[in-house]
């Protein structure tokens, strides 16, 4: 019998947290804390892109940016979404790439996959699918996609170097990526070990320089960070205490807010030709 290691425990914690989160959105009709209503957050990220998108998909989105709007997607492109969640970005991708293109999402949480399939059906999307799997070992063929996108997911991985290598593997030569993710500076190590802080996209997040260097080490080039948003203390508190219903002691929460620099950053680049 295989013994679980720390990486497996992190994945299980994340799966439990997001299973609870999707259940909450389906029963309560929203995903965010009272401090920052979900509709306000999504409107600022997506704007008019949300017109015609099923409300269930909007309410079940847990991202930190809009990677679809800023990616130069064209009709016929094949796009892979890492950690596709309940499918909001998949729906938007499918609309942009048209009938000759396709979108593939990968997620490890069964409840999210079920929700995504329902949302794709509600949106009438026929050129997108979602597959169960880990982003460290993607169920996708080598050199098969034009774009990789992701929205606040890679920070949750305990093996980010494998994720970066997988991005390189699945991209076609010259293929590009547009990733929004959380980066964190100055978070004490003992707080990174708190499972709830990890699931809240903070504990597992690395610094911007580590992230960019990890992408480059995987063989990706032209790595840039053209967009960023720094979270204010009240926003950091809201992130940690919002849709995931995580149990973070007040003393630890106060220390995070006092010491950590938390940002959402967009990373772009490509696989060499």
Summarize the structure.
With 273 residues, the chain is an alpha/beta fold. It has helices spanning 6-28, 38-46, 55-59, 67-70, 88-97, 110-122, 160-170, 189-192, 195-199, 208-217, 233-241, 250-259; strands spanning 78-82, 102-107, 128-132, 145-151, 171-185, 221-230, 261-270. It has twelve helices and seven strands.
Largest sheet: 7 strands, mixed
The top level CATH class name:
Alpha Beta
Order of helices and strands: HHHHEHEHEEHEHHHEHHE
Number of structural domains: 1
Give your account of this protein's structure.
By secondary structure, the protein is of the alpha/beta class. It has a single domain, classed as Rossmann fold, CATH 3.40.50.150. Helices cover 41% and strands 21% of the residues. The chain has helices at residues 6-28, 38-46, 55-59, 67-70, 88-97, 110-122, 160-170, 189-192, 195-199, 208-217, 233-241, 250-259; strands at residues 78-82, 102-107, 128-132, 145-151, 171-185, 221-230, 261-270. A seven-stranded mixed β-sheet has the order 3-2-1-4-5-7-6. Helix 1 (6-28) packs across helix 6 and helix 11 (233-241) runs antiparallel to helix 12 (250-259). The longest helix is centred in the N-terminal third of the chain and has 23 residues, at 6-28. The radius of gyration is 17 Å and the shape is globular. The termini are far apart.
Give short descriptive properties of this protein.
single chain; about 270 residues; alpha/beta; Rossmann fold; seven-stranded mixed β-sheet; about 40% helix; globular
């Amino acid at each position: 019998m295989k013994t679980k290691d720390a990486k497996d425990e992190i994945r299980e914690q994340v799966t439990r947290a997001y299973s609870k989160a999707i259940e909450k959105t389906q029963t309560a009709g929203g995903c965010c804390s009272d401090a920052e209503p979900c509709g306000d957050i999504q409107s600022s990220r997506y704007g008019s892109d949300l017109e015609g998108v099923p409300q269930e998909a909007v309410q079940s989105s847990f991202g930190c940016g809009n990677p679809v709007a800023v990616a130069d997607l064209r009709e016929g492109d094949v796009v892979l979404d890492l950690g596709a969640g309940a499918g909001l970005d998949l729906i938007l991708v499918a609309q942009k790439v048209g009938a000759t293109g396709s979108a593939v999402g990968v997620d490890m949480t069964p409840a999210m996959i079920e929700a995504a399939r329902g949302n794709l059906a509600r949106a009438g999307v026929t050129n997108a699918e979602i597959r169960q799997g880990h982003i460290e070992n993607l169920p996708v063929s080598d050199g098969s996609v034009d774009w990789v996108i992701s929205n606040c997911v890679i920070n949750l991985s305990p093996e980010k170097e494998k994720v970066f290598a997988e991005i390189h593997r699945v991209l076609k030569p010259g293929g590009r990526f547009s990733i929004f993710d959380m980066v964190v500076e100055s978070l004490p190590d003992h707080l990174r070990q708190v499972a709830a802080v990890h699931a809240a996209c903070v504990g597992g997040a690395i610094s911007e320089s580590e992230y960019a260097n990890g992408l480059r080490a995987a063989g990706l080039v032209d790595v840039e960070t053209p967009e960023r948003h720094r979270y204010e203390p009240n926003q950091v508190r809201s992130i940690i205490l919002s849709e995931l219903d995580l149990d973070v002691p007040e003393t630890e929460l106060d220390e995070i807010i006092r010491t950590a620099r938390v940002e959402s950053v967009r990373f772009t680049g490509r696989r060499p030709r």
